Structure formats: structure tokens, C-alpha cells
Amino acid sequence: MTHAIRSFTLDVPQAALDDLHRRLDQTRWPDKETVDDWSQGTPLEALRELCEYWRDGYDWRRCEARLNALGQFITELDGLDIHFLHVRSPHEHALPLVLTHGWPGSVVEFLEVIGPLTDPPDPADAFHVIAPSLPGFGFSGKPTVTGWGIERIARAWAELIRRLGCERWVAQGGDWGAAVTTAIGAQASSGCAGIHVNMPVARPLPEDLATPSEAELRALAALKHYQDWDSGYSKQQSTRPQSLGYGLVDSPVGLAGWILEKMWAWTDNGGSPYDALSRDAILDNIMLYWLPGTGASSARLYWESFAKFADGEVMIPAGASQFPREIIPAPRKWAERRYKNLIYWHELDQGGHFAAWEQPALFVEELRGCFRLMR
Question: What domain range includes position 283?
Fold first, then answer.
């Protein structure tokens, strides 16, 4: 039955891990960068140290067991198998919540928030958590045709929720998850009571540029930095994902270098990505790209939808949390033009782009505060 929800258990063959170790052993390393910082990309020494740990200290089976213990499932949506975590709250009246990750993230981003969200001190704050892997990411299927952009994903998520028997629900996301969640809001998907994003993306108007406020000046400076120094990955992935994919799927070091740079650039850290995330957490996430070979298929989401990231107005209730190291912050003034019923807005003083991953306790409090207004 194509619409069945099937239990999914991770049991990666040892041969796949042995192959990873062989590839790490046979790496052909480039010469060292000519600077003493990250301005030319992931430094050689930083990547060698991470890959040495990946080879000799990292334990994939620990992550595998943790994911299996949560409850993993697969169901076919619009012709494509979608992998998702589904963790039910022990509290009967919990509110179903869809959490959507982005790139270069995965459902690993949510491992520390699922427990507090499903079983909070106050049962009135409880959620049933559904965390799908985006098409072409993690252990979801890889689209073989064009068309899997954010609007189609939003419709698929709404069907997933319907299939799980949820009549009233809410949605949350950051990065591509914010784009999908905003699309859910723009479509006013059946039963969706509201949304929350931790990366509200909204465009300025010409008059904003003429007499910008202090908040707008900060946002414009961040946007210029992104365009000048941090957007090369998105240009490549939105124009030539296939060319990039050969290296990312074939070389674990190439993949790790591509992703580790974003862990440094986009987290709220003091100079090292490990100030925000542990080596194990980063490698758990990288493994969800390496094992299923999704370097090309995940990048294609940029080809499908990067130009549409800021499209769509949301009329249903919405909330947003601004973490200080977000890569493209949007002032509330801009956000209110896109999220027409913005009932929750909070600017925090800690955290970066990977909010749930970096600051799980703050992230949980943000979702509780926002969705209390929508229950």
C-alpha cells in the first residue's frame, strides 16, 4: 500500500563504515591556505583534525541507536518516500508540531529539543513532534524529476500531517525549513493553526533604503556581508548542483570541508565551530549526508527554489525569533509586510543560524511562548 506509514530502522552495513575509513585514509590533501583564519574557507589543520577524529574516535553506532530509539518512519508522499521522526508526547492533548530543518542541516539539529518539547514541566506546553527529512536529504528519497520546490514540499508536509491523523497542528522551521514553513502558512494548509520561524526572510522596500533605521542598517550590513563573502555556496548549488555533487558524494573530506565552513560561519561562536557545536554533533549531521550520498540531491533544492525563498505572504498567525548571528536578519518592519498576522516577535542575545542545535533551551522556550498564543 503506497500510502502506508512504515517503521524505519537504521542499520548501516559495516562495509559502508569501512569504506568511509578507507576513503579518509586515502585522502589527497591540498596545500595549506595562505592566511591564518577562515577567510579562504575551511583551514587545512581544522579539517585534518576533524577527519582524524572521524576516522579513529567517532562512533556512528551511538547516533544510529539514538535515532532508532526516537522512532523513525517512512511514507510515500506525492510519489517520493519521505523519512521522518515521529515522537508522541505522553500528554494526551499535546499539539502536533512539524519541525523542518535546512541545509546543511538534518533532523540531527532537533535531537536535544524533542524531549523538552514532548514532555515539558507544564503539560499545557506539550507537543507531538514530527520532523521530516527534506526530499533529497538524509534518508528521504531523492527526486528523479524537477519540481520538488518549497511549495510542493509544503503540500507534502500537510498531507503527512493529515495521514498521521492530526486535525489541528503548527509548523516551525529555520533556513530551508523557514521557507517551507512560510509556504505552509501562505497556503493556509488545512488544520494549520499557525507557524513560527527562526529565519524570517523579507525584502526591504526602496523607502527603507532611503532612510533606514538602526535595525535596518544592521540587516543591510549582514546582507552585504552574505552577498560579498558567504553566498558562493548558494550560487553554486542554485546553478550547478550536479557538478558540485560529484565531489561531495565521492569524497568524505570534500563533504566535511564544505559543511564545516558553514558550522563556523553561521554559528554564534568565539572563533571555532566547536564553541557552538561538538565534534560528535557536527559529524552526526555530516553522516546524514555521507551515508545516503545526498551531496547532489540536497543541493538541488537551491536550483529548484532559491529564487523563491522570499516569496509568499502569510495570513494565518505567525511568530518569529531572531537569534543574533542569523545570516540574513530581517527587521520586524520588513517581516510584518510578509507575515501579515505576526503575533509573536522576540530578539535574543545568544545563538546563531542553527538555533535548535546551538541553543536548545532557548529554542524550546521560544516555541512554547509563540505557540501558547495559537493553541
Answer: 5-371
